[in-house]
Specification:
Low-confidence stretches: none
Strand content: 25-35%
Largest sheet: 10 strands, mixed
Shape: globular
Number of helices: 6
Helix content: 10-25%
């Protein structure tokens, strides 16, 4: 017998909850913020809005469905099932946080703070949930993701971008290659390499792209293409600066062979969930076969 569909509501701890947990009481948190020129009522109002949106979405789940909730910090321990419909209630970044753990489940993004969030990924309001949930999966945008695979089988998937470099963003030493050993290869010293998608082109990747003059066309979120940039490449007798930016198609890959004691690769800004790389290891970055199926 097949299981009933399940709505998985993904949310995160609010700033207000974090402040009260840190300072013990509402009053202590209010005093702390006031000493820094902020009013706790602003923070509390956003908290109430987020919790009201979560409650409204939960109430909109069809009665014949199952329901579960998962906080952002627990995503890596939550087991998503094929029949799930994932409802992300929060900011755009929360969709990216959840994306790496999904394998084709439709995702509905609910914006809890319209006007403060760009709304690129959280495209809907809580009031829309009742009509969106039953139809989830019928009309979706298939957003491209980026994948890094190391030679020891470590694997990392991200929706926006993958960063390769040192944990402290200091000088990383490596050999950069394009399309295998038959392509161009260059020894480099830089503050890291950024490889991103069209979705990531609204964030960190875009800031680097703008600094470089915007010469390369940005991919669309659904395009099978990536942009990559080397950050602050350093010229020296042993290191070059010729391979510092480019585009990767669906079948292309960027390879990086480590020539430092310790490099890492992390996705979507989550440094706590990083691949650990040591001298001589090679990691390849390219378009991921999986897509994020985002309800439009």
């Amino acid at each position: 017998m097949s299981l009933a569909r399940r709505a998985v509501l993904v949310h995160r701890t609010t700033e207000y909850e974090e402040l009260v947990a840190r300072h013990g009481t509402h009053g202590q948190a209010a005093f702390f913020l006031a000493s820094r020129g902020r009013d706790i009522e602003e923070v509390a109002e956003r908290h109430r809005g987020a919790r009201a949106a979560l409650a409204e979405v939960a109430a909109a789940v069809p009665l014949t469905w199952r329901q579960a909730r998962v906080e952002r910090a627990d995503l890596d321990r939550f087991l998503f099932a094929p029949e799930d419909v994932v409802v992300v209630v929060g900011q755009d970044g929360l969709v990216a946080n959840a994306a790496k753990y999904l394998t084709g489940q439709p995702v509905i993004g609910i914006d809890t703070d319209p006007g403060r969030n760009p709304g690129v990924l959280v495209r809907h309001r809580a009031a829309d949930a009742a009509k969106l949930l039953p139809a989830a999966g019928t009309t979706v945008d298939e957003l491209t993701m980026v994948e890094a695979v190391a030679d020891d089988t470590q694997r990392l998937v991200a929706l926006n971008e993958i960063y390769l470099g040192t944990p402290g963003h200091q000088t990383a030493r490596y050999r950069l290659g394009l399309d295998g050993d038959g392509g161009a290869v260059e020894a480099q010293a830089s503050s890291g390499v950024l490889v991103g998608t069209g979705t990531g082109a609204t964030g960190w990747l875009r800031s680097v792209w703008q600094e470089r003059g915007g010469a390369l066309p940005l991919p669309s979120p659904t395009e099978d293409g990536l942009l990559w940039f080397v950050r602050e490449a350093w010229p020296s007798p042993a290191t070059g600066t010729k391979l510092v930016a480019g585009r990767l198609g669906a079948s292309a890959a960027l390879s990086l062979t480590v020539e430092s004691d310790h490099l890492i690769a992390f996705g979507d800004g989550i440094e706590t969930d990083a691949l650990q790389l040591t001298w001589g290891q090679t990691i390849r970055v390219g378009v991921c076969e999986r897509r994020l199926r985002l309800v439009g």
